[in-house]
Amino acid sequence: MIKYNFDEEINRRHTHSYKWDIKERHMDTEDVLGMWTADMDFKSPQPMLDILRDRLDHGILGYTIRGENFYEIIKNWMKHRFNWTLTDEDIHFCPPGVIPAACMLVDLLTEPGEEVFAFMPNYDSLYGTVEAMGRKLVTAPLLCAATPAATCGDWTLDLDAFEKIVRDRKIHLALFCSPHNPVGRVWTLDELLKFGEICRKYNVFIISDEVHCDIIRPDTIHTPMGKVPGMEDLSATLMSPNKSFNVAGVMTASVIIHNREVMKKFRTKLNHWAMNLDTVFGTLAVESLYSDPECEYWLNQVNEYLTENLESAVDHIKKNIPCLSTYVPQGTYLLWIDFSKTPLRGHELRRYLVQECKLDLCDGWEFDPECLDHMRLNCACTKATLKEALKRLEKCKELL
Ligand SMILES: Cc1ncc(COP(=O)(O)O)c(C=O)c1O
Fold it and tell me: Which residue stretches of 59-157 are H helix?
Protein backbone atom coordinates (compact mmCIF):
# COMPACT_ATOMS: atom_id res chain seq x y z
CA MET A 1 0.00 0.00 0.00
CA ILE A 2 1.23 3.51 -0.82
CA LYS A 3 1.64 5.96 2.05
CA TYR A 4 0.60 9.31 0.61
CA ASN A 5 2.28 12.58 1.47
CA PHE A 6 -0.46 15.19 1.66
CA ASP A 7 2.10 17.74 2.82
CA GLU A 8 3.48 17.91 -0.72
CA GLU A 9 2.99 21.45 -2.01
CA ILE A 10 1.58 21.41 -5.55
CA ASN A 11 1.18 24.77 -7.23
CA ARG A 12 -2.35 24.94 -8.68
CA ARG A 13 -2.13 28.50 -9.96
CA HIS A 14 -2.41 28.77 -13.76
CA THR A 15 -3.84 25.23 -14.09
CA HIS A 16 -7.39 26.33 -15.07
CA SER A 17 -8.28 25.83 -11.40
CA TYR A 18 -11.70 27.14 -10.41
CA LYS A 19 -10.46 27.49 -6.83
CA TRP A 20 -7.20 29.32 -7.54
CA ASP A 21 -7.42 30.97 -10.95
CA ILE A 22 -10.53 33.18 -11.03
CA LYS A 23 -8.81 36.57 -11.05
CA GLU A 24 -12.06 38.55 -10.56
CA ARG A 25 -12.46 37.01 -7.10
CA HIS A 26 -9.11 38.47 -6.01
CA MET A 27 -10.09 42.16 -6.32
CA ASP A 28 -6.75 43.21 -7.85
CA THR A 29 -4.87 41.66 -4.92
CA GLU A 30 -1.81 39.45 -5.46
CA ASP A 31 -1.06 36.20 -3.65
CA VAL A 32 -4.61 35.48 -2.43
CA LEU A 33 -5.00 31.96 -1.01
CA GLY A 34 -7.80 29.89 -2.61
CA MET A 35 -9.76 28.50 0.34
CA TRP A 36 -13.26 28.46 -1.11
CA THR A 37 -14.74 25.97 -3.62
CA ALA A 38 -14.91 22.37 -2.41
CA ASP A 39 -12.00 20.53 -3.94
CA MET A 40 -8.71 19.45 -2.37
CA ASP A 41 -5.15 20.57 -3.08
CA PHE A 42 -3.99 16.92 -3.12
CA LYS A 43 -3.18 14.48 -5.92
CA SER A 44 -5.78 11.74 -6.41
CA PRO A 45 -4.98 8.04 -5.75
CA GLN A 46 -2.06 6.77 -7.82
CA PRO A 47 -3.77 3.64 -9.29
CA MET A 48 -6.47 5.82 -10.87
CA LEU A 49 -3.92 8.33 -12.18
CA ASP A 50 -1.98 5.43 -13.74
CA ILE A 51 -5.10 4.14 -15.50
CA LEU A 52 -5.91 7.60 -16.90
CA ARG A 53 -2.28 8.04 -17.99
CA ASP A 54 -2.33 4.66 -19.80
CA ARG A 55 -5.44 5.77 -21.66
CA LEU A 56 -3.77 9.03 -22.66
CA ASP A 57 -0.73 7.09 -23.86
CA HIS A 58 -3.08 4.91 -25.91
CA GLY A 59 -3.91 8.19 -27.59
CA ILE A 60 -7.52 7.60 -28.69
CA LEU A 61 -10.22 9.30 -26.62
CA GLY A 62 -13.27 8.15 -28.55
CA TYR A 63 -16.87 7.52 -27.37
CA THR A 64 -16.72 5.33 -24.30
CA ILE A 65 -18.89 2.61 -22.79
CA ARG A 66 -18.89 1.52 -19.17
CA GLY A 67 -16.94 -1.68 -18.43
CA GLU A 68 -18.64 -5.06 -17.95
CA ASN A 69 -18.20 -4.82 -14.20
CA PHE A 70 -19.42 -1.25 -13.83
CA TYR A 71 -22.65 -2.08 -11.95
CA GLU A 72 -20.94 -4.76 -9.88
CA ILE A 73 -18.30 -2.23 -8.82
CA ILE A 74 -20.90 0.35 -7.73
CA LYS A 75 -22.93 -2.30 -5.88
CA ASN A 76 -19.85 -3.61 -4.06
CA TRP A 77 -18.79 -0.10 -3.08
CA MET A 78 -22.23 0.77 -1.68
CA LYS A 79 -22.43 -2.54 0.19
CA HIS A 80 -18.96 -2.24 1.60
CA ARG A 81 -19.12 1.47 2.55
CA PHE A 82 -22.75 1.84 3.67
CA ASN A 83 -23.99 -1.77 4.04
CA TRP A 84 -26.48 -0.82 1.34
CA THR A 85 -27.68 -3.61 -0.95
CA LEU A 86 -28.54 -2.49 -4.47
CA THR A 87 -29.59 -4.23 -7.68
CA ASP A 88 -28.48 -3.20 -11.19
CA GLU A 89 -31.93 -1.67 -11.75
CA ASP A 90 -31.47 0.75 -8.83
CA ILE A 91 -28.34 2.30 -10.33
CA HIS A 92 -27.96 4.91 -13.01
CA PHE A 93 -25.54 7.73 -13.68
CA CYS A 94 -25.42 11.34 -14.75
CA PRO A 95 -22.16 12.16 -16.49
CA PRO A 96 -21.94 15.89 -15.73
CA GLY A 97 -22.40 15.39 -11.96
CA VAL A 98 -24.69 15.48 -8.98
CA ILE A 99 -26.17 18.93 -9.59
CA PRO A 100 -27.19 18.24 -13.21
CA ALA A 101 -28.88 15.06 -11.89
CA ALA A 102 -30.74 17.17 -9.29
CA CYS A 103 -31.83 19.59 -12.05
CA MET A 104 -33.21 16.76 -14.15
CA LEU A 105 -35.08 15.28 -11.22
CA VAL A 106 -36.62 18.63 -10.27
CA ASP A 107 -37.73 18.93 -13.89
CA LEU A 108 -39.13 15.38 -13.93
CA LEU A 109 -40.95 15.44 -10.63
CA THR A 110 -42.61 18.87 -10.67
CA GLU A 111 -44.33 21.24 -13.08
CA PRO A 112 -43.07 24.77 -13.84
CA GLY A 113 -44.21 27.19 -11.11
CA GLU A 114 -44.64 24.41 -8.52
CA GLU A 115 -43.09 24.82 -5.04
CA VAL A 116 -40.09 22.78 -3.89
CA PHE A 117 -38.75 22.66 -0.32
CA ALA A 118 -35.17 23.02 1.03
CA PHE A 119 -33.65 23.65 4.46
CA MET A 120 -31.41 26.73 4.70
CA PRO A 121 -28.54 27.41 4.75
CA ASN A 122 -27.82 25.03 1.90
CA TYR A 123 -25.39 24.48 -0.97
CA ASP A 124 -26.25 27.23 -3.46
CA SER A 125 -26.10 25.14 -6.63
CA LEU A 126 -28.42 22.59 -5.02
CA TYR A 127 -31.20 24.95 -3.93
CA GLY A 128 -30.45 26.99 -7.07
CA THR A 129 -31.76 24.10 -9.22
CA VAL A 130 -35.30 25.00 -8.11
CA GLU A 131 -35.40 28.48 -9.60
CA ALA A 132 -33.11 27.47 -12.47
CA MET A 133 -35.83 25.01 -13.52
CA GLY A 134 -38.59 27.63 -13.18
CA ARG A 135 -39.98 26.32 -9.86
CA LYS A 136 -40.46 28.23 -6.57
CA LEU A 137 -38.24 27.66 -3.56
CA VAL A 138 -39.86 27.37 -0.12
CA THR A 139 -37.51 27.08 2.85
CA ALA A 140 -37.29 26.40 6.57
CA PRO A 141 -34.20 27.02 8.69
CA LEU A 142 -31.75 24.56 10.13
CA LEU A 143 -31.70 25.37 13.82
CA CYS A 144 -28.67 26.07 16.00
CA ALA A 145 -28.23 27.98 19.24
CA ALA A 146 -25.61 30.56 18.30
CA THR A 147 -23.36 30.22 21.34
CA PRO A 148 -19.56 30.16 21.16
CA ALA A 149 -19.67 26.67 22.67
CA ALA A 150 -21.99 25.33 19.92
CA THR A 151 -20.78 22.14 18.25
CA CYS A 152 -21.75 20.66 14.92
CA GLY A 153 -24.22 18.33 16.64
CA ASP A 154 -26.22 21.37 17.82
CA TRP A 155 -27.53 21.92 14.29
CA THR A 156 -30.94 20.29 13.85
CA LEU A 157 -33.65 20.05 11.21
CA ASP A 158 -36.69 22.19 12.02
CA LEU A 159 -39.09 19.31 11.43
CA ASP A 160 -42.12 21.17 12.82
CA ALA A 161 -41.61 23.94 10.27
CA PHE A 162 -41.02 21.35 7.53
CA GLU A 163 -44.23 19.49 8.37
CA LYS A 164 -46.31 22.67 8.51
CA ILE A 165 -44.96 23.84 5.15
CA VAL A 166 -45.44 20.60 3.22
CA ARG A 167 -48.89 20.08 4.75
CA ASP A 168 -50.22 23.62 4.26
CA ARG A 169 -48.67 24.23 0.84
CA LYS A 170 -49.08 20.68 -0.46
CA ILE A 171 -45.44 20.41 -1.47
CA HIS A 172 -44.33 17.04 -2.88
CA LEU A 173 -40.63 17.53 -3.56
CA ALA A 174 -37.76 18.46 -1.22
CA LEU A 175 -34.02 18.84 -1.70
CA PHE A 176 -31.80 17.47 1.06
CA CYS A 177 -28.06 17.78 1.64
CA SER A 178 -26.41 14.90 3.52
CA PRO A 179 -23.73 15.29 4.86
CA HIS A 180 -24.71 18.90 5.00
CA ASN A 181 -22.84 21.65 3.21
CA PRO A 182 -22.14 24.17 4.74
CA VAL A 183 -22.95 23.28 8.38
CA GLY A 184 -21.17 19.90 8.28
CA ARG A 185 -23.82 17.71 9.93
CA VAL A 186 -23.88 13.97 9.24
CA TRP A 187 -27.55 13.23 9.93
CA THR A 188 -28.23 10.31 12.28
CA LEU A 189 -30.51 7.44 11.35
CA ASP A 190 -32.93 8.62 14.02
CA GLU A 191 -33.14 12.09 12.44
CA LEU A 192 -33.58 10.61 8.98
CA LEU A 193 -36.34 8.31 10.23
CA LYS A 194 -38.25 11.24 11.75
CA PHE A 195 -37.77 13.30 8.58
CA GLY A 196 -38.87 10.28 6.50
CA GLU A 197 -41.99 9.80 8.60
CA ILE A 198 -43.20 13.29 7.62
CA CYS A 199 -42.24 12.71 3.98
CA ARG A 200 -44.33 9.53 3.90
CA LYS A 201 -47.27 11.19 5.64
CA TYR A 202 -47.46 13.95 3.01
CA ASN A 203 -45.96 12.05 0.06
CA VAL A 204 -42.85 14.24 -0.28
CA PHE A 205 -40.15 12.83 -2.58
CA ILE A 206 -36.56 13.61 -1.52
CA ILE A 207 -33.65 14.40 -3.82
CA SER A 208 -30.75 13.69 -1.50
CA ASP A 209 -27.40 15.22 -2.46
CA GLU A 210 -24.80 12.98 -0.83
CA VAL A 211 -21.70 14.08 -2.68
CA HIS A 212 -19.80 14.49 0.64
CA CYS A 213 -20.76 10.98 1.91
CA ASP A 214 -17.19 9.62 2.16
CA ILE A 215 -15.58 12.59 3.90
CA ILE A 216 -16.64 12.13 7.51
CA ARG A 217 -14.99 12.08 10.93
CA PRO A 218 -14.06 8.68 12.43
CA ASP A 219 -16.90 8.58 14.98
CA THR A 220 -19.70 9.24 12.48
CA ILE A 221 -21.80 7.01 10.22
CA HIS A 222 -23.38 8.20 7.00
CA THR A 223 -26.75 6.65 6.09
CA PRO A 224 -27.86 7.04 2.46
CA MET A 225 -31.44 8.33 2.14
CA GLY A 226 -32.41 5.39 -0.09
CA LYS A 227 -31.43 3.01 2.70
CA VAL A 228 -33.61 4.68 5.36
CA PRO A 229 -36.48 2.30 6.11
CA GLY A 230 -39.64 3.61 4.44
CA MET A 231 -37.76 6.04 2.16
CA GLU A 232 -36.70 3.51 -0.49
CA ASP A 233 -39.49 4.48 -2.90
CA LEU A 234 -39.61 8.14 -1.98
CA SER A 235 -36.04 9.20 -2.72
CA ALA A 236 -33.24 9.61 -5.22
CA THR A 237 -29.75 9.40 -3.69
CA LEU A 238 -27.03 11.24 -5.59
CA MET A 239 -23.41 10.25 -4.97
CA SER A 240 -20.11 10.56 -6.75
CA PRO A 241 -16.36 10.10 -6.26
CA ASN A 242 -16.03 13.86 -6.83
CA LYS A 243 -15.35 14.96 -3.22
CA SER A 244 -14.16 11.57 -1.91
CA PHE A 245 -11.23 11.27 -4.32
CA ASN A 246 -10.83 14.86 -5.49
CA VAL A 247 -11.99 14.28 -9.07
CA ALA A 248 -14.56 17.08 -9.50
CA GLY A 249 -13.11 17.83 -12.94
CA VAL A 250 -13.91 14.37 -14.35
CA MET A 251 -17.63 15.12 -13.91
CA THR A 252 -19.49 11.93 -13.14
CA ALA A 253 -22.19 10.85 -10.65
CA SER A 254 -24.21 7.84 -9.52
CA VAL A 255 -27.97 8.18 -9.22
CA ILE A 256 -29.67 5.58 -7.03
CA ILE A 257 -33.45 5.32 -7.42
CA HIS A 258 -35.39 2.33 -6.10
CA ASN A 259 -38.72 3.65 -7.37
CA ARG A 260 -39.07 1.94 -10.77
CA GLU A 261 -41.43 4.53 -12.22
CA VAL A 262 -39.15 7.46 -11.32
CA MET A 263 -36.10 5.54 -12.52
CA LYS A 264 -37.75 4.83 -15.86
CA LYS A 265 -38.53 8.52 -16.34
CA PHE A 266 -35.00 9.49 -15.31
CA ARG A 267 -33.39 7.06 -17.80
CA THR A 268 -35.66 8.32 -20.57
CA LYS A 269 -34.83 11.93 -19.82
CA LEU A 270 -31.10 11.21 -19.78
CA ASN A 271 -31.45 9.56 -23.18
CA HIS A 272 -33.47 12.45 -24.56
CA TRP A 273 -30.77 14.85 -23.45
CA ALA A 274 -28.18 12.55 -25.08
CA MET A 275 -26.37 12.03 -21.80
CA ASN A 276 -26.36 8.21 -21.81
CA LEU A 277 -22.67 7.81 -22.65
CA ASP A 278 -19.95 8.69 -20.18
CA THR A 279 -16.74 10.65 -20.42
CA VAL A 280 -13.72 8.45 -21.03
CA PHE A 281 -12.05 9.65 -17.83
CA GLY A 282 -15.25 9.53 -15.77
CA THR A 283 -15.86 5.86 -16.53
CA LEU A 284 -12.28 4.78 -15.93
CA ALA A 285 -12.01 6.87 -12.76
CA VAL A 286 -15.18 5.44 -11.17
CA GLU A 287 -14.15 1.87 -11.98
CA SER A 288 -10.71 2.31 -10.46
CA LEU A 289 -11.67 4.44 -7.44
CA TYR A 290 -14.56 2.24 -6.32
CA SER A 291 -12.78 -1.10 -6.81
CA ASP A 292 -9.05 -0.79 -6.11
CA PRO A 293 -8.29 -1.24 -2.37
CA GLU A 294 -5.32 1.10 -2.83
CA CYS A 295 -7.78 3.90 -3.63
CA GLU A 296 -9.81 3.26 -0.51
CA TYR A 297 -6.58 3.28 1.45
CA TRP A 298 -5.93 6.76 0.02
CA LEU A 299 -9.43 7.79 1.14
CA ASN A 300 -8.76 6.59 4.70
CA GLN A 301 -5.49 8.49 4.78
CA VAL A 302 -6.99 11.68 3.39
CA ASN A 303 -9.80 11.50 5.94
CA GLU A 304 -7.22 11.31 8.74
CA TYR A 305 -5.33 14.28 7.35
CA LEU A 306 -8.51 16.33 6.94
CA THR A 307 -9.64 15.58 10.49
CA GLU A 308 -6.26 16.77 11.81
CA ASN A 309 -6.54 19.93 9.71
CA LEU A 310 -10.07 20.69 10.87
CA GLU A 311 -9.30 20.05 14.54
CA SER A 312 -6.17 22.17 14.48
CA ALA A 313 -7.91 25.00 12.60
CA VAL A 314 -10.79 25.10 15.10
CA ASP A 315 -8.37 24.97 18.00
CA HIS A 316 -6.31 27.81 16.52
CA ILE A 317 -9.36 30.00 15.89
CA LYS A 318 -10.75 29.41 19.38
CA LYS A 319 -7.43 30.27 21.03
CA ASN A 320 -6.28 33.13 18.83
CA ILE A 321 -9.21 34.82 17.09
CA PRO A 322 -11.89 35.40 19.72
CA CYS A 323 -14.10 37.46 17.42
CA LEU A 324 -14.78 34.36 15.28
CA SER A 325 -16.53 31.17 16.27
CA THR A 326 -16.63 27.79 14.60
CA TYR A 327 -16.61 24.04 15.34
CA VAL A 328 -15.30 20.77 13.86
CA PRO A 329 -17.80 19.54 11.24
CA GLN A 330 -18.96 15.91 11.42
CA GLY A 331 -18.60 15.62 7.64
CA THR A 332 -17.01 17.58 4.74
CA TYR A 333 -13.68 19.44 4.95
CA LEU A 334 -15.39 22.82 5.27
CA LEU A 335 -15.47 25.13 8.29
CA TRP A 336 -18.59 27.25 8.76
CA ILE A 337 -17.28 30.35 10.51
CA ASP A 338 -19.39 32.90 12.36
CA PHE A 339 -18.12 36.49 11.93
CA SER A 340 -21.12 38.11 13.64
CA LYS A 341 -18.97 39.59 16.44
CA THR A 342 -17.07 41.65 13.85
CA PRO A 343 -18.69 44.79 12.43
CA LEU A 344 -18.34 43.60 8.82
CA ARG A 345 -21.14 42.09 6.76
CA GLY A 346 -21.60 40.72 3.24
CA HIS A 347 -19.52 42.45 0.60
CA GLU A 348 -17.50 44.46 3.17
CA LEU A 349 -16.51 41.24 4.93
CA ARG A 350 -15.47 39.67 1.65
CA ARG A 351 -13.48 42.76 0.67
CA TYR A 352 -11.65 42.76 4.01
CA LEU A 353 -10.78 39.06 3.79
CA VAL A 354 -9.53 39.31 0.21
CA GLN A 355 -7.74 42.65 0.29
CA GLU A 356 -6.51 42.79 3.89
CA CYS A 357 -6.08 39.09 4.75
CA LYS A 358 -5.44 37.83 1.19
CA LEU A 359 -7.90 34.99 1.69
CA ASP A 360 -10.59 33.83 -0.75
CA LEU A 361 -13.37 32.14 1.28
CA CYS A 362 -16.97 31.31 0.29
CA ASP A 363 -19.51 33.99 1.23
CA GLY A 364 -22.25 33.00 3.69
CA TRP A 365 -24.92 34.62 1.53
CA GLU A 366 -24.32 32.04 -1.19
CA PHE A 367 -25.74 29.45 1.20
CA ASP A 368 -28.57 31.66 2.38
CA PRO A 369 -29.16 35.13 0.91
CA GLU A 370 -29.84 36.44 4.43
CA CYS A 371 -26.62 35.08 5.90
CA LEU A 372 -24.20 38.02 5.69
CA ASP A 373 -22.10 37.21 8.77
CA HIS A 374 -20.70 33.74 8.00
CA MET A 375 -17.96 32.53 5.67
CA ARG A 376 -16.94 28.99 4.68
CA LEU A 377 -13.27 27.99 4.84
CA ASN A 378 -12.04 24.95 2.89
CA CYS A 379 -9.42 23.05 4.95
CA ALA A 380 -8.52 20.50 2.23
CA CYS A 381 -5.03 21.89 1.73
CA THR A 382 -1.56 21.15 3.02
CA LYS A 383 -0.86 21.82 6.68
CA ALA A 384 1.55 24.57 5.62
CA THR A 385 -1.11 26.35 3.53
CA LEU A 386 -3.62 26.01 6.34
CA LYS A 387 -1.12 27.44 8.83
CA GLU A 388 -0.50 30.41 6.55
CA ALA A 389 -4.26 30.92 6.03
CA LEU A 390 -4.90 30.91 9.79
CA LYS A 391 -2.06 33.37 10.35
CA ARG A 392 -3.65 35.69 7.78
CA LEU A 393 -7.08 35.22 9.38
CA GLU A 394 -5.66 36.45 12.70
CA LYS A 395 -5.74 39.96 11.27
CA CYS A 396 -9.49 39.85 12.03
CA LYS A 397 -8.55 40.51 15.68
CA GLU A 398 -8.12 44.13 14.62
CA LEU A 399 -11.84 44.27 13.86
CA LEU A 400 -12.93 44.19 17.49
C1 LIG B 1 -23.36 19.60 -1.50
C2 LIG B 1 -22.75 19.61 -2.86
N3 LIG B 1 -23.41 19.03 -3.89
C4 LIG B 1 -22.91 19.00 -5.13
C5 LIG B 1 -21.67 19.57 -5.42
C6 LIG B 1 -21.18 19.54 -6.82
O7 LIG B 1 -21.31 18.26 -7.35
P8 LIG B 1 -21.15 18.01 -8.90
O9 LIG B 1 -19.89 18.70 -9.33
O10 LIG B 1 -21.09 16.52 -9.01
O11 LIG B 1 -22.36 18.57 -9.57
C12 LIG B 1 -20.96 20.20 -4.40
C13 LIG B 1 -19.67 20.85 -4.68
O14 LIG B 1 -19.15 21.61 -3.91
C15 LIG B 1 -21.50 20.21 -3.08
O16 LIG B 1 -20.84 20.76 -2.06
Answer: 70-82, 98-109, 124-132
